[in-house]
Design a protein that fits this description.
Layout (H helix, E strand, L loop, with lengths): L2 H14 L2 H4 L34 E8 L9 H9 L3 E6 L5 H6 L6 E6 L4 H5 L2 H11 L8 E9 L7 H20 L7 E7 L3 E3 L7 E2 L4 H14 L3 E4 L2 H7 L3 H7 L7 E3 L4 E3 L2 H15 L7 E6 L14 H16 L3 E2 L2 E2 L5 E3 L62 E4 L6 H12 L20 H16 L12 E4 L16
Parallel strand pairs: 1-2, 1-14, 2-3, 3-4, 4-5, 5-8, 8-11, 11-14
Antiparallel strand pairs: 6-7, 9-10, 12-13, 15-16
Helix pairs in contact: 1-9, 6-7, 7-8, 13-14
Length: 499
Amino acid sequence: MATTAVHLEAGRLSKLLFPLFSDPLFTIAIVQTISYVFGSMSDSSNSVSFSNFLDSQSFIGVNYGNQASELPQPGDIVNLLKTTTIAKVRLLGSADQSMIKALANTDIELVIGLDNTEIQWVASGPDAASQWVNSKVMPYYPASKIIIITVGNEVLTSENQDVISSTLPAMQNIQNALNTASLGEKIKVTTVHSMAVLSQFSPPSSGAFNLSFVDTMKALLQFQSAHGSPFMINAFPFCAYKSDPKPETLAFCLFQPNSGQVDSRNNIEYMNMFDVQVDAVRSALNAMGYNDTEIVVAQTGWPNQNYRNEVGPSLDNAKAYVGNLINHLRSNVGTPLMPGKSLDTYIYELFDEDEKIGTVSSSEQSFGLYKSDTSPYYDSGLFKSSENPTTPSPTTPASPTPAPNPVGLWCVPKPDGISDAQLQENINFACSQGIDCSPIKQGGACFEPNTIASHAAYVMNLYYLFAGKNPWNCNFSQTATITTTNPSYDGCVYPSGST
């Protein structure tokens, strides 16, 4: 995550994105701090653990940066990656050749790039670009599955006009060097943008690029469209929360139960900030005529430590954001403007980078998923498992059917003090996460009795199973509890979790 992202996004989000929160129509219900059902530790995550989902998912990637005082050896990093479902790695900064080599013959796809300081040199002529490709690509490809070369990171918002004006020529030179090596159709060339390239993203359907970048953006998009390369964006709901640090904003940013936000232009309801940010980019691209340009989320994550009393960074929040993001991607629900598809998303980042210089805040050094000894900071749901459940359908998600257990567990609303409004929020949240809510609709096996409490009980339990059957998956802002009493009735069967 670049300094530019924190500085510009935080400043602009407060002006551009949060009119939604000030309008009563878009007010999000305040979510109390969520604790484990067992009560032993605070966990604001409602985090979903899908570690059994598949051996790997092509849409889940991770960023790797080496600005750290202590990092594992490349071979140890590769061994760690092999224990996870991570299918892609993006190397930050100038391409780290030791990592490119280490990732050979692993089937892990690789994004490498030019550092911002290299752009003017590569833009200077074809010889420089050929030299870069010959040193960073040719010795390793195809054993190392390089799929994308990024020319700089957040260049347009860097305010360095010399580098900005050199970006497209550098991209063209790299593309020509790849063409000469017969790799022009196999490796895509692009650049990475901050969310600050947007002048408007509230509501998402009105997303538009900043007028000061329009001419440059048009030229970049013309190049990328001609070569089929993706539009890569750094999207950080964390920055949105820093701009409006309220409990309701946090719930929306962490994929926790909330009452949602409605886009007044198209009446689409949004249940999380990630979808808001990505769909704003989709709208901006569509407005410029690039409806078919693929979006890739180059960086997204949440800091795991708080050094200077900053708002938002914590281990619980990082676990909540990353875990729930992974579940959201794995559900194949997509976003409201791009339904039924999981975007390629690169989590920021594999390890902390404590040697970053000139960062706006110390939290930028603490986005790591793993410690330097390769142990996890928290269970993000990325580790592989011997189990291999069925992939949920993006259009008609299947209800989970756990194996029979001697003692079943079910997630149901607490018996007293829970309002219908809160239960309706639970229904809305659970049904937005890719589970099959058709049984509670008219004609469904669980439609009767036609009460909010009955419908909430069914879908809350289904979400509990779908999310991983962990105690924190049955929390719903402290409105749910786990029971061993089977709530099934007549033809309405509640699947059970295991003991």
